[in-house]
Specification:
The chain is an alpha/beta fold. It is about 30% helix and about 30% strand. It folds into 2 domains: about 5-370, Rossmann fold; about 380-475, GMP Synthetase, Chain A, domain 3 (2-Layer Sandwich). The strands form 6 sheets. It has a 9-stranded mixed beta sheet, sandwiched between helices. An 8-stranded mixed beta sheet has the order 7-6-4-5-9-10-20-21, sandwiched between helices. Strands 18-19-22-23 form a 4-stranded antiparallel beta sheet. The chain is globular and about 75 Å long.
Length: about 500
């Protein structure tokens, strides 16, 4: 990379100079032009600097989406600080993440919404205020700005800017660290094929503490378009938005609501999207896309407009993908700098620079098809079974909101699948074994179906680990399959 390219204007300053009066940010209470937004971020950077935030500081942000979180992240970039974005959760879980972020005796800079603190016990509130320096965004600003990184309008693109924890759906969450250059490489690679222009508006419909939400921020900055932050009511928030990142059930709910929509493009999560829904969207003038990605790759790796080919699309610019015995490895400019632990970066790539996703897939005419997780594959009677393959079929049932398949011990076959189902209907009335007969090979049809318990989600995913623990605690008839000889 050219050395001169490492020190570039922060993008909001670029847009403030070239498009000062264009609307940059829409919130429930305000609209900000690029000029007003740049001034607000600069002021907030001075507020943070007055409280000790400087280059290299880790600022932990515990909140759902809000204008404050967006501006706080951008102000930290301007200061050369790193934003660690954390889902609101019990203080014990927040503490676990703080121990990953800060070493012994290190100042713990935290901004946490009052609504989150109010849910803590009095003892936890005392520990929070004792252990952490709680940042006040309404505090007085520094009289001068000598501690802004190099220049208020300049930023080292290779400096670390974000820490996002993985979902931890099958293990301990890891703190994934990216630079601004990596985030922008992700954004620009997607926007090379996915239309998003300056006159468009993307709804921030996913949480910033997940990379899928954070990536929306960098697409907005890259395009110089408009970002909308809603109040959490999708039917109202979608008004005026041309672009959104949604799951299929959200899109269906919007279309069934029959409200006028300005939507032109929707990026759908998940690789299994019902084609009738995509046709319904097309009939309403909406182009639907799907993709495959992960935290370590700064979100999307492959993408395509939805069609009748069951794949996650082609590899986007700035990424590389290779298969080793069907196992998916990725590399490229979007790959994270490492896993963060108390100021140190733990490498996530092998000696050749490739990251093992632990996903399994195959190529179909240049498109990548995801067949499952390597650690969610097991052997039943000598046959390989992928949990996600069965889940993808079950999730196409009109009365099923979500499913999760887990292997249990079988004296005859070694292991067999059972399914946990989230549905408003009585499971026996769905007659799922019969419904699956012409959709799955017989040995892949689960032996039993159970109602999925209502458990807290780790962000936007249901925790597979939590589901297994619940099943083990509540079902005596089946033993979870943990035999390494039968689980790949």
């Amino acid at each position: 990379m050219n050395v001169d390219s490492l020190h570039q204007p922060c993008l909001w300053h670029t847009w403030a100079c070239t498009r000062p009066d264009a609307i940059a940010l829409v919130t429930p209470n305000n609209e900000y032009t690029w000029q007003a937004l740049a001034e607000q971020i600069h002021h907030l950077a001075r507020v943070l600097a007055a409280q000790g935030v400087s280059e290299g500081t880790v600022v932990t942000v515990v909140s759902n989406n809000s204008p404050d979180v967006v501006m706080l992240h951008l102000a930290c970039i301007q200061l050369g600080a790193i934003t660690a974005l954390i889902v609101p959760q019990p203080y014990q879980l927040i503490q676990e993440k703080l121990r990953v972020l800060y070493g012994e005796g290190q100042r713990q800079f935290v901004w946490i919404r009052d609504s989150v603190i109010s849910g803590f016990s009095e003892q936890d509130r005392q520990r929070l205020f004792t252990d952490c320096q709680i940042l006040n965004l309404q505090a007085p600003a520094a009289a001068s700005t000598p501690c802004l990184a190099r220049d208020a309008e300049q930023h080292d693109a290779e400096r670390l800017v974000s820490i996002v924890f993985t979902s931890g759906s099958s293990g301990v969450p890891k703190a994934v660290t990216h630079t601004q250059a990596q985030h922008l490489a992700s954004a620009r690679g997607l926007l090379a094929v996915f239309p998003f222009q300056q006159y468009d508006c993307w709804l921030l419909s996913l949480p910033l503490y997940h990379v899928s939400g954070l990536s929306i921020l960098y697409r907005w900055l890259s395009a110089g378009a408009c970002l909308k932050i809603g109040s959490g009511q999708l039917e109202q928030d979608i008004e005026g938005a041309t672009h959104a990142s949604l799951v299929a059930t959200q899109l269906k709910r919007l279309l069934d609501h029959h409200q006028p929509l300005r939507l032109s493009h929707v990026l759908l999560g998940g690789s299994d999207v019902p084609m009738p829904l995509c046709q319904q969207a097309r009939d309403n003038g909406i182009e639907t896309w799907l993709g495959y990605g992960m935290t370590e790759a700064a979100s999307t790796v492959t993408a395509k407009p939805t069609d009748d080919i069951a794949s996650a699309g082609r590899v986007l610019p700035n990424r590389q993908v290779q298969l080793r015995n069907k196992r998916i490895y990725i590399a490229g400019d979007t790959l994270a700098s490492g896993y963060y632990h108390q100021g140190q970066l733990i490498p996530l790539v092998d000696e050749q620079g490739w990251f093992d996703t632990k996903d399994v897939g195959q190529w179909i005419d240049g498109e990548l098809r995801i067949t499952g997780r390597a650690d969610n594959q097991f052997i039943s009677g000598g046959e390989n079974i992928h949990c996600e393959e069965i889940e993808a079929v079950l999730n196409r049932h009109p009365d099923i909101r979500q499913s999760m398949v887990i292997p249990v011990h079988s004296p005859e076959y070694g292991a067999r699948p059972i399914a946990l189902i989230d549905s408003a209907s009585d499971l026996s009335a769905l007659q799922l074994p019969l419904w699956l007969e012409d959709k799955l090979t017989r040995f892949k049809i689960p032996d039993a179906f159970f109602s999925m318990p209502q458990q807290p989600q780790t962000g936007i995913k249901v925790s597979r680990k939590a589901m297994k623990e619940w099943f083990s605690d509540n079902q005596n008839e089946y033993q979870l399959m943990n035999d390494p000889e039968n689980v790949k």
